[in-house]
Amino acid sequence: MEMKAPRGVRDILPDESWKWSYVINIAAKAMADYGFSEVHLPIFEHTELFSRGVGETTDIVEKEMYTFEDKGGRSITLRPEATAGMVRAALENNLCAQGSDAKLWCFGPMFRHERPQKGRYRQFYQVDCEHLGCAGAANDVEIIDLAAEIFRRLGLKNLEAVINSVGCPKCRPVYREALIKYFNNYKDKLCETCLDRLDRNPLRILDCKKPDCGAVADGAPDIYNSLCDECREHFEEVKRGLERLGIAYKINKRLVRGLDYYTKTAFEILSGDLGAQNAVCGGGRYDNLSDSIGGPHLPSVGFACGVDRIILVMEQQGLSFGERPKAKVYVAALDNSARGEAQILTHKLRSAGIAAQCDTENKSFKSQLKAAGNAKFACILGPDEIKNKVVTLKDMADGSQVSISDNELIDYIKDKLK
Ligand SMILES: [Zn+2]
Ligand SMILES: [Zn+2]
User: Fold this and answer.
1) Residue 115 Cα, ligand 1 centroid: separation in angstroms?
2) pLDDT at 185
3) Which ligand is nearest the CA of 224, by number?
4) Where are the alpha helices (DSSP H) in 115-210?
5) Given this model, what pLDDT does residue 275 score?
6) What's the pLDDT at 258?
7) How far apart are the two ends of the chain, measured CA to CA in Å?
């Protein structure tokens, strides 16, 4: 039987992977410019980290986690998101001791058991960026600016930040009650999922994508009327900060995001033409995540962006991924006597940092030259060249040939490739 990958996962192959490198390198440079350092974290954690950190009543924890018992009888979960693990790592390694902050980012796979569809996989990849141990609104502004900066550098069109405040444990219960009271009047219009959420997590009804629920949600009470003074002032400061930096934003009172840990600021970055906007990134402030996993109070703000989605959107917008890396030089052996020398020369070119290929399957000179068509130069080696310690260098673009001595070859090619 031929083995196939499980449903909902895929292979990122060479035709695509070079685009991934491009996107991740651009994001990495932007995050470094903003003072963030890369970390590598485990892809599995104790299940409790997510049930307590992300929230028992979220879709992620209720339905979407890959959870299993390991051979030691512990309940283990493949991370469905990166923030909880990031906070766990910072606490465990004392990165935020004595009131210091930590700016961290990571890249890697996340796992959710969702219905697979275009652009959505059960193993998907995120760049995740977190500023841990920071309370002021200026940090929210900085993190939104950084997210937007990454997409500006990638060339995404018509960027817009969408922001909201989801309140805090002081003021959210008031809003919750107002929502339950309101939605109770429209029980006949809500979908089954929303009915189920009504008492446990009514905020989530606000971001239901079903049109009927959306119509009801549009008339729901405004959270801004319920915010406490601290949350209201924080939200005003975020708006003023974004305006200072010239970052276009919209307020969407229905933006609550699917994770319970958000407090105060929630945001998404959208890109595209009006009517066909795509969320390429989402994030927000999560002042109580650390408390909920047993740590000290650690106000923090961050975002995650899905790389699968970014690449899809960049392709839709016809954006450049830079130049696909390929061999610059192909070393062709004119006959069998030159094959050994051809491999030695290929090794020398590679050691000098020049991407080079040669034939290792005893192919004819003709088919070697055909393969060389993908390179910028072909180095041709035959008995005459070897005897005279030269190489015939053929420019594959115009077919011109020059004879160059062995010891000048590498500098010559490097110069030409500049
Ligand atoms: Zn509040
Ligand atoms: Zn619904």
Assistant:
1) 35
2) 94
3) 1
4) 137-154, 172-184, 192-200
5) 63
6) 66
7) 50
Q: How far is the CA of 150 from the centre of ligand 2 (A)?
A: 33
Q: Do residues 175 and 221 make contact, with C-beta atoms less than 8 angstroms apart?
A: yes
Query: What region does 277 belong to: left with phi over 0, alpha with psi -120 to 50, or beta?
Result: beta
Which ligand is in closest contact with the Cα of 166? 1
Distance 228 CA to ligand 2 centre (A): 28
Q: Which ligand is nearest to the CA of 287?
A: 1
Token representation of residue 379? 């180095």
pLDDT reported for residue 59? 84
3-state secondary structure of 318: coil
Radius of gyration of the chain (CA): 28
Distance 54 CA to ligand 2 centre (A): 21
At 100, list the tokens. 């210091």
**Cβ neighbours of residue 236 closer than 8 Å, sequence gap 6 or more:** none
* Rounded distance from Cα 214 to ligand 2 centre (Å): 7
The environment of the single-atom ion ligand 2, i.e. residues with CB closer than 5 A, is 191, 194, 208, 210, 213
**What residue type is assigned to position 340 of the chain?**
G
Which CATH fold topology does 14-171+227-316 show? Answer: BirA Bifunctional Protein; domain 2 (3.30.930)
Closest ligand, as measured to the CA of 168 = 1
Look at the block and give the residue holding tokens 């697979």. 116
Ligand 2 centroid from CA 190, angstroms: 5
Q: 272-310: string of b/e by CB count within 10 Å (b at 16+)?
A: beeeebbbbbbbbbbbbbbebbebeebbbbbbbbbbbbb
Contact criterion met (CB below 8 Å) for 78 and 117: no
Cα–ligand 2 centroid distance for 351 (angstroms): 60
Cα(11) to centroid(ligand 1), Å = 44
Q: Which two tokens stand for residue 386?
A: 């070897």
Q: pTM above 0.85?
A: yes
CA of residue 86 to ligand 1 center, whole Å: 25
CATH of 329-413, one of 3.20.20.70, 3.40.630.30, 3.30.70.920, 3.40.50.800: 3.40.50.800
Task: Provide the residue ranges of all domains of the chain, joining segments of one domain with +.
Answer: 14-171+227-316, 329-413
Give the Å distance between the CA of 286 and the centre of ligand 1. Answer: 12
Q: What is the pLDDT of residue 177?
A: 92
pLDDT average per 10 residues of sequence, the chain (418 residues): 93 96 98 98 97 87 94 97 97 94 98 89 97 98 98 94 94 91 93 89 87 91 93 98 96 82 93 76 96 95 95 93 92 96 97 96 96 95 96 95 96 94
Pairing of strands 377-381, 401-405: unpaired
